[in-house]
Amino acid sequence: MTFEALVHASEVITGRGVRLKDGKRITDEDLGRIPDGAIVYSRHSVAGQSVPKKVEWVGPTEELPKKWSEVPKTDLKRKRAIVPGLIDCHTHLVFAGDRSAEFAARCGGASYEEIAQKGGGILTTVKATRAASEARLIRLASARLREVYRRGVRTVELKTGYGLTAESEIKTLRVIQALRRKFPKMTLKATYLGAHAVPSGVDRSEYIRKIVEETLPAIGRQNLADTCDVFVDEGYFTRDEGRAILLAAQRHGLPAKIHADEMTNTEAATLAVELGALSADHLLKISDSGIQSLSRSSTVAVLLPGTAFYLKAHQAPARKLLDAGVRVALATDFNPGTFMCSSLPVVMTLAALYLGMTCPEIFAAVTYNGAKALGLEAHKGTLEPGSDADFWVLPFRKFEESYYRFAW
Ligand SMILES: [Zn+2]
Q1: Which end of the chain is more exposed for a tag (fewer CB within 10 A), N or C?
Q2: What is the distance in A from the centroid of ligand 1 to the CA of 261?
Q3: Tens digit of pLDDT for each residue in 256-265?
Q4: How remote is the CA of residue 42 from the centroid of ligand 1, in Å?
Q5: What are the residues whose beta carbon lies below 5 Å from ligand 1 (ion)?
Q6: pLDDT in tens, 110-130
Q7: What CA dihedral angle connects 394, 397, 402 and 405, to 10 degrees?
Q8: Cα(193) to centroid of ligand 1, in Å?
């Protein structure tokens, strides 16, 4: 194990107060901004690569303890800030195929539902992803992950859901395992989303029975996924179907997540709370009682303003959620149909412009609260002695610049 230090950062934001308040009602004082800051961290070797391990010390450069005065230092000359590595807690990053024609059709006035009825939408990607080899999927996803890393993200959740057969869903999970070995500097979490849509030509109840009785036990046995997600919405899966699938997932050690109340309100957010889910995601149509139940729970509301922007839909009621004391995370929802963009900073800009979120709220949403939506908050999301050293050295002086500058 070796130790290193970064000194004279224009600012270090530790996020310590965000942790103390467990991600709720975050204001500027909670960020723990340290002007002219420094950080000391350990390194270790993973798969032949040297990667940062744990944070040892954080504070003002001039207070660097004697104990660390001899470690190799990099001087950031007050030109670059350091924040916890960003967390993108909702992506569909592993896919093949091209849906640019569908985008053109939507711009010409066709609705997402009309496109789906004509056999487009998710099922187009399903066809291409099923046909792609593991090696090709790894290649495509690797190029995307390199871009994601460049923009400060160190932890990414990746969902399946473009296979929709046990075999091709498990293929996608194996691709995620391979990506994990290829990117030791990142933390990749795998979510099984077999209940993304019912594949065409398949009996609905038989499809659900197979997920519950065959696919989930196989995934659990091989330890291939970290969490399980269901698309609960009109035309997708009902609350009762979602409950049955997610209870089965929990029996196999997979915590729940839900695509909830996106196109219609089906009180899916309340179901997420009932199941003790890690997160309820989208929430464009969440009801007041859904907001109330989230505010009294440990379930994170994951907002995806890029998707609503791309679909020209009404945004989620972010201010109502935040003001009710709900814990809010932001994520890209990067996917080929409804947000073909892997940039979390772009999503942060959209959150500032269209969700009315403040800088401290945005910071918490892409750090600690993102970690909480993945069950990783014990070690990630803040920079404190003992936490994982997956920080981001910004190419900017201040955190705000990462989303004030648009689409860098
Ligand atoms: Zn999604």
Answers
A1: N
A2: 12
A3: 999 999 999 9
A4: 35
A5: 333
A6: 988 888 888 788 889 999 999
A7: -130
A8: 9
